[in-house]
Specification:
The complex is a heterotrimer of chains A (543), B (275) and C (370). Chain A is an alpha/beta fold and 543 residues long. Chain A has 22 helices and 20 strands. In chain A, the strands form four sheets. In chain A, strands 6-7-8-3-9-10 form a six-stranded mixed sheet, sandwiched between helices. The radius of gyration of chain A is 26 Å and the shape is globular. Chain C is an all-alpha fold and 370 residues long. Chain C contains 19 helices and no strands. The chains are: A alpha/beta (543), B mainly alpha (275), C mainly alpha (370). At the A-B interface, helix 13 and helix 15 of A face helix 7 and helix 8 of B.
Chain lengths: 543, 275, 370
């Protein structure tokens, strides 16, 4: 079979302008080669900064910002597109190769109707007449399962939901009947229950139209559902390249193995879950404009255990954390800690009450003052709560740094000089410095690459064993819940759907929402998507 | 900071400001004649004893220019420092305290800004007696509305960051939050803003003096010198243009430095426009 | 100044409009996500329903209301604020040596013996009908003087806008086209210098060269009733040039920033990746979104022009509002100062409102509600 796209020995560079230094050239991608055949999908996978988007855009001979393709060949149907002039490249973009961006909400022009934008490239390149293009758009809207396909094109981007926009973007890419489509993390910004629909729609549309595709993502489980081959990238270089089955079931490289086996941390839940260190009773909360976010939520957590609160965006899980900390006083209900009711608002709480509950944020970048060193960041709670200073304080900071497995050489570094994982570790040390009894963890690993996230989770578990601290762990990731929780609370649209010990919550019989949520989480298993869709079809046929 | 990383344009700006400040500080030493001494005929051309010629009353133009640097820079700087302190104090208070205080300050600020600065100044100066400190105060209060707007935006930007929330959760007081958490992170945009306000103050003071409402004669100041000598223009005497050029040069120098500071900190909110 | 009695008056007035504060209104007008559950709760008041169904009309009404409220507050401030400041007009008027009897008489004469609220109401009532009382200095009707001079000032500002707006937008686009290349850098440095030049310096420089040295322009820029249109135009050539130079740099820099912002957006990248021509990308994808910010820039700078007129009129001895006001300030002729202040502020507020409203209309999210 002829290769639709053949990339040979690609090299991509960019010029960066660090403030106060002469500009320097950085190599983003080096020595990458792959082939995609007609009707086949190649998955490009890697952590942030692995160069996967840059490679994807090179298929359109495009570089963002100061990015330049400086070496190698990009052969489209046997012809090197890098040697083409401006007009030659233009005639390929939007006609023979199309692009689906991560954020469709930003990629659609807010000033024009969706339909006009979907057919624009087909018309401009003279591929089809307006009527033909409209017919094809309608067909694609149907294939992609968009609501009211006849009138969908008349709407403006801000009038439809995020999942629908992502599908509309796919329709836009498919409309001119391209030979190749580049999907750049098309489902990353979506909730899991939405992701599965979009994923299924994309897979269906690719099969229907026999186009070739590059599918870029950081989620191996997602790419396993959709691609025929997978290339694993790291630091702009190829780690491993092979058939999907081989990569998932028999990875050859250590790095790939680590990616596949990530989330294998397992911890059995505590047998005795009767204690109530933290007790949340009938809590409702809302914002000043009268918009209610939490409705009558109750749950509890025994000392030294982990309560995972799981839900999608808008479920109210982060709001619950704000209520517990006192940042957002509840409108109804009460929260007690160690048998004593907590004052509703932050201002009413004593320093000791504040000390006992600490918090870790999702973005360690914004959670630490960029103008303070690690010593100041970790040291402040020590002097604030315990009045420590001088040698004693330094000793304690060093101890804490050892505890988070970093060591005292980091004492005088600024957050900007640390990696993402190190920053999150310092944030943990800051929380530990207060000798807390409960730590609220608001998605502390979801901004991190999978291997780094794994390290953080293991650290949290180790610390729990050492200090018997309790965790309220807020996450959207069921795999993490499986790995670390004792008890689980499932939230949906501000209400508690399900609460209890992990083994009970995560086993049938399920309520509708938990069922949907659990079934939507991609599993590292080929054919998982088909199976889920099959079950769905059977269920709907049965009804 | 690396000195070599400062671009040429910023160096020119820094040099210009340094020269102006040097003149201001050592005016009596540098100036060949006294500030108010009539030393020759009126509007003598440049050259000879009088390097830049004489003015409408026969005073040495160079000497007055040097003394004028003193008045202009002192008044503009005083007004800027005052407006900055006032604007910063109120805006940070508004951003940190929030709620009703924020609403009250912000709405009042909107009201003040609904009247163009120059018009506001004209109305107020029509009523108030002519004193130097009143002039400085009026300039400072009017200018502080701009500082307030920028300061509040910058502070709010930082105040919603999670490290500020973390400090609140720790139980820190407002003073710690303002001075230890927020202020260090807003220094560079605010420094740029300070330069911008200073440049604006120089221009504003000169404009007021030119209109006869700023610094009163016989004190030398650059805007007033333009006013004194403007009648010479129709006779082709360029005495009025020299202090005008001095104002422009100083303002350009300050703006060159500000431009460099702004490029270093792209996070600054708000435009440089002003009215 | 902030504690003074009359000044706190405007705050509650503005506070009622504060419920419809621009920013919060914009946010509530555009719900970030559709929330079917909350639809039922939006019964509420008539206004809330109206805001939800016709966000565009509601926002425009809010802006109009806000501007009227603001103007009212400003009038209170200009009138009441002056009252609250120290200094007795009668003494100022007569000089320090006046006898108490003379002061008393003059107070009565000027109506200063009545309570300030009464004087404010009659002043505001007159102002609405164009009657601003009589000048203390010349004993002429202020309204009559203003009606002549306002026309002259607007004539000047109109031609300055006519030249500067297309020029600024054109140069701004040029700078974007050659972003970070030589033309852009030149434009950047020159405009940076231009915004640092005081108006009077530019004015006298132009006079020196074009009127005195080469004699191709007239100075002073006097206009009178019997002048023909072309004569007027040649008379205002230099003041217009000065105003253009002063406002151009600002407007151009802001235009450049506004267009750059749109050009670096994701949807322009999408258009580029569709293989569209540069012309189509700019005309169809960038322009509709750049219109609002650019209009905003223009309106803001026209507001700036209103102020620039004051100094330029003094420089060129042009019989407009600005010169009238400055003269009145020097002799402390309060009725004139108040009238001019109010009119300048009204233009300023009106232009800012126009900028806001045009930006709202140009926003597709508000034009096509869910």
């Amino acid at each position: 079979m002829p290769e639709m796209l053949s990339v040979k020995n690609l090299k991509i560079e960019a010029t960066s302008y660090p403030p106060g230094e002469p500009p320097k050239v950085v190599t983003l991608v080096e020595g990458v080669s792959f082939d995609v055949q007609k009707g086949k999908v190649l998955g490009l996978i890697g952590e942030s900064g692995a160069g996967k988007s840059t490679i994807g855009l090179s298929a359109l001979a495009y570089g963002r910002g100061g990015v330049r393709i400086t070496g190698g060949q990009v052969l489209l149907d046997g012809k090197d597109i890098l040697t083409l002039d401006r007009n030659g490249i233009r005639s390929i973009r939007g006609a023979r190769v199309c692009y689906v961006a991560q954020s469709a909400a930003a990629a659609f022009n807010p000033a024009h109707r969706l339909g006009d934008q979907v057919i624009e490239a087909s018309l401009r390149h003279g591929i089809m007449s307006r009527d033909e293009a409209k017919k094809r758009a309608l067909y694609l809207f149907r294939v992609l399962g968009l609501p009211n396909p006849e009138t969908f094109g008349e709407r403006y981007p801000h009038q439809v939901s995020g999942g629908q926009l992502q599908r509309a973007m796919t329709a836009m890419a498919l409309c001119p009947n391209p030979e190749l489509i580049v999907f750049d993390e098309p489902t990353t910004a979506l909730d899991v229950t939405t992701q599965i629909d979009v994923l299924a729609a994309i897979k269906h549309a690719i099969e229907e139209t026999h186009t070739a595709a590059l599918y870029i993502t950081h989620d191996l489980a997602v790419v396993a559902q959709i691609s025929d081959d997978i290339m694993v990238l790291r630091h702009g270089k190829t780690v491993e390249y092979g058939a999907t089955q081989q990569i998932i079931e028999a990875p050859r490289e250590d790095y790939t193995r680590a990616l596949v086996s990530v989330r294998q941390t397992k911890r059995n839940e505590a047998a005795d879950q009767t204690g109530t260190q933290l007790k949340i009773e009938h809590v409702s909360a809302g914002y000043a404009n009268g918009f209610k976010v939490l409705h009558d939520v109750s749950m509890h957590l025994p000392k030294g255990q982990t309560l995972a609160i799981v839900g999608e965006s808008g479920s109210g899980k982060s709001t619950l954390a704000r209520v517990i900390t006192g940042l957002l006083p509840p409108t109804e209900g009460r929260i007690s800690f160690e048998g004593k009711e907590l004052p509703r608002a932050l201002k009413g709480r004593s320093n000791d009450e504040l000390r006992r509950i600490q918090m870790i944020y999702q973005m360690a970048d914004t959670a630490m003052n960029p103008r303070q060193t690690v010593r100041e960041i970790v040291g402040r709670p020590l002097s604030f709560y315990f009045g420590m200073h001088g040698q004693k304080k330094t000793e304690r900071i060093k101890e804490l740094l050892d505890q988070i497995e970093m060591g005292s050489r980091f004492l005088d570094r600024y957050p900007a000089e640390l990696s993402g994982g190190q920053k999150q570790r310092v944030a943990i040390a800051r929380a530990l410095a207060a000798k807390p009894e409960l730590i609220l963890c608001d998605e502390p690993t979801s901004a991190l690459d999978p291997l780094v996230a794994e390290g953080i989770l293991n650290l949290l578990l180790k610390l729990q064993e050492e200090t018997a601290v309790s965790y309220v762990f807020i996450t959207h990731d069921i795999a993490i819940v499986r790995a670390i929780a004792d008890s689980v609370a499932v939230m949906h649209r501000g209400r508690l759907v399900r609460f209890g010990p992990k083994s009970k919550v995560l086993s049938p019989p399920f309520d509708d929402y938990t069922d949907l949520l659990l079934k939507s989480v991609p599993e590292m298993e080929i054919g998982w998507l088909e199976r889920v869709l099959q079950t769905r079809r059977m269920e709907s046929a049965g009804n | 900071m690396n000195l070599r990383s400062i671009p040429l344009s910023a160096w020119i700006g820094i040099a210009g400001i340094a020269i102006a400040i040097f003149c201001a500080v050592f005016a009596p030493v540098i100036a060949p004649f006294g500030e108010r001494d009539v030393v020759g005929d009126i509007w003598l051309p440049a050259g000879g004893d009088f390097l830049l010629g004489t003015d409408n009353l026969g005073r040495d133009l160079l000497s007055r220019l040097v003394y004028g640097a003193r008045t202009t820079i002192f008044v503009a700087l005083a007004a800027t420092v005052l407006s900055f302190s006032l604007g910063m104090l109120l805006s940070f208070t508004a951003a940190v305290v929030g709620g009703f205080t924020d609403q009250l300050f912000s709405r009042f600020n909107d009201l003040m800004m609904a009247i163009p600065t120059l018009i506001f100044a004209l109305v107020v100066l029509a009523v108030l007696p002519q004193h130097l400190w009143i002039l400085i105060l009026v300039m400072a209060v009017l200018d502080s509305t701009r500082v307030f707007r920028i300061g509040r935006a910058v502070a709010l930007d930082v105040a919603v960051m999670e490290f500020v929330e973390a400090a609140r959760l720790r139980g820190e007081g407002s003073l710690w939050i303002i001075f230890r958490e927020i202020l260090p992170n807003t220094l560079s945009p605010l420094l740029a803003e300070f330069g911008l306000r200073f440049a604006f103050s120089i221009l504003f003071l000169s404009t007021l003096s030119f209109l006869g409402l700023g610094i009163q004669p016989p004190s030398a100041d650059w805007g007033g010198m333009v006013k004194d000598n403007k009648d010479g223009i129709i006779f082709g005497i360029s005495a009025a243009l020299i202090p005008g050029a001095a104002i422009a040069t100083l303002a350009i120098c300050v703006n060159l430095v500000v431009d460099w500071l702004m490029k270093r900190t792209s996070s600054l909110k708000g435009g440089r426009g002003d009215a | 100044m902030m504690e003074s009695g009359p000044l706190t008056g405007p705050v509650p007035t503005d506070g009622t409009a504060g419920a419809t504060h621009p920013r919060s209104a914009e946010l509530s007008g555009v719900p970030a996500k559709p929330n079917p559950a909350s639809d039922g709760q939006i019964g509420g008041t008539f206004w809330r329903r109206f805001t939800f169904r016709r966000p565009l009309a509601a926002l425009i009404l809010q802006r109009l209301g806000l501007s009227v409220g603001l103007l009212f507050a400003v009038s209170l401030m200009i009138f009441g604020g002056i009252e609250a400041l120290p200094g007795d007009f009668a003494t100022t008027y007569l000089g320090q040596s006046a006898t108490p009897q003379a002061v008393e008489n003059i107070r009565k004469d000027l109506g200063l013996d009545k309570p300030w609220t009464e004087r404010y109401l009659s002043w505001l009532g007159g102002a609405v009908q164009g009657d601003f009382g009589t000048s203390w200095a010349s004993k002429n009707s202020v309204g009559e003087q203003i009606s002549k001079r306002l026309g002259n000032s607007l004539f000047l500002a109109f031609f300055a806008a006519l030249v500067s707006v297309p020029l600024a937008v054109g140069l701004g686009m040029l700078a974007v086209q050659f972003r970070n290349r030589l033309p852009d850098k030149i434009i950047n440095v020159v405009s940076l210098a231009a915004i640092s030049l005081p108006e009077f310096f530019v004015g006298y420089l132009l006079i020196m060269f074009f009127a005195v040295k080469y004699g191709i322009a007239t100075f002073p820029a006097t206009v009178y009733d019997s002048m023909s249109f072309t004569e007027r135009l040649s008379a205002i050539a230099l003041p217009v040039a000065t105003l253009v130079l002063v406002v151009l740099a600002h407007m151009m820099r802001m235009t450049r920033a506004a267009i750059l912002n749109v050009m670096s957006s994701a949807y322009v990248e999408t258009a580029e990746l569709k293989g569209l021509s540069m012309f189509r990308i700019i005309a169809r994808h960038a322009a509709p979104n750049a219109v609002a910010p650019v209009i905003n820039v223009i309106a803001l700078n026209l507001a700036y022009l209103v102020v620039g007129v004051v100094v330029v009129e003094v420089v060129f001895v042009y019989p407009g509002m600005g010169q009238y006001m400055v003269d009145a300030v020097t002799v402390r002729d309060m009725p004139v100062v108040q009238a001019c202040g109010l009119i300048f502020a009204a233009f300023y507020i009106f232009l800012n409102m126009a900028a806001d409203i045009l930006a709202i209309i140009a926003n597709p999210r508000l034009r096509h509600p869910r």
